[in-house]
Design goal:
8 strands, about 50% helix, alpha/beta, 2 domains, N-(1-d-carboxylethyl)-l-norvaline Dehydrogenase, domain 2, eight-stranded mixed beta sheet, Rossmann fold, binds nicotinamide-adenine-dinucleotide, single chain
């Protein structure tokens, strides 16, 4: 892997983080977004990230400033990618927006440029044709707060060249990620393939009034040795996200239990401002949630 110049397209929540993390590890980064206003917002986000890297990673002011100096910002896609070895896409999770973007990118990027999507729910094969270079395209999926939650799920689609797959794995390691190769396409990658069914099952136990939040979490924690149960995880994910998923499933299926669960999350949590760790209260209250009490795992 001899990548030097990386483009990050879309400089929102994840794009800003990917761009800064990449620059922090010594790469030249061009950031692309649709207009100057979006780029200004990205610069504000990156200012905040500098503080987080100093706080969380004990990075020095010199190091975060040097990372920023390796970044440049463009609202002209052709200029942004003119020297890119790799272009990482983190634009909205909307099929049409991504398809249009890949068509344009495929036409104007140099032949050498590898394309990677950070999409959470869409599969790379959906866009492979639009890129015009399916063999040089794959998914590279990060988690929010990537400097702390440093997983990089690297996922092929059937047409991805193995050399490209291996190079992107090396790149992910080079920017401080733990690279997790997925050899076949899988909706939800590895993490959400495991996590979503667990969280769904926990919510169902609650809505069916089988057991309360603490009993469900306690069972999981004692039996598997996990540091958190599903409801503690839901507090981190955020109750709004949990509600949006449940609400969409209830609408799509008409399932009565799903409807009841959506209503419970809305009236008992969201309407009361209990959105999870972000607001200091969700299923637990923070900073000292009961599940962290040494007695929690006892009778
Ligand atoms: P976001 O809404 O915060 O940012 C999207 C950015 O894309 C904005 O800056 C917007 O101006 C820009 N944009 C809009 N249209 C564009 C276009 N045509 N070309 C270029 N830029 C355009 O979104 P986000 O949360 O950063 O998510 C971006 C991608 O990352 C999605 O595919 C999402 O699934 C994925 N992702 C998000 C998270 C997360 O926790 N937020 C985690 C992993 C992956």
């Amino acid at each position: 892997m001899n990548y030097k110049n990386i483009t990050v397209a879309g400089s929102g929540v994840l794009g800003s983080q990917i761009a800064f993390q990449t620059a922090f590890h010594g790469f030249n980064v061009t950031v692309y977004d649709i207009n100057d206003e979006a780029l200004e917002k990205a610069k504000e986000r990156i200012e905040k990230l500098k503080g987080r890297y100093q706080e969380d990673l004990k990075a020095t002011e010199e190091e975060v400033n040097a990372a920023y100096d390796r970044m440049s910002f463009y609202s002209d896609l052709a200029k942004a990618v003119s020297e890119a070895d790799l272009a990482i896409e983190a634009i909205p999770e909307v099929v049409q927006i991504k398809t249009d973007f890949y068509k344009k990118l495929g036409e104007i990027a140099p032949e050498k440029t590898i394309f990677a999507t950070n999409s959470s729910t869409l599969l790379p094969s959906q866009f492979a044709e639009a890129t015009g270079r399916p063999e040089k395209f794959l998914a590279l999926h990060f988690a929010n707060e990537i400097w702390l939650n440093n997983t990089a799920e690297v996922m092929k689609h059937p047409g991805t060249d193995m050399k490209v797959f291996d190079e992107v794995i090396e790149f992910a390691k080079a920017i401080g990620m733990v690279a997790l190769p997925l050899h076949k396409e899988q909706p939800g990658y590895i993490l959400n393939s495991l996590l979503v069914p667990l969280l769904d099952a926990a919510e169902m136990l609650l809505v069916r009034e089988v057991a309360d939040v603490e009993t469900i979490d306690k069972t999981w924690m004692i039996a598997t040795g996990a540091p958190k149960g599903p409801f503690a995880i839901l507090d981190v994910v955020g109750i709004t996200t949990a509600y949006n998923i449940v609400h969409a499933k209830a609408e799509a299926t008409g399932n009565e239990e799903m409807k009841k669960l959506a209503k419970l999350l809305k009236t008992e949590y969201i309407d009361k401002g209990k959105l999870g760790t972000a607001t200091g209260e969700g299923f637990y209250t923070y900073p000292n949630p009961s599940y962290m009490d040494p007695d929690f795992l006892k009778n």
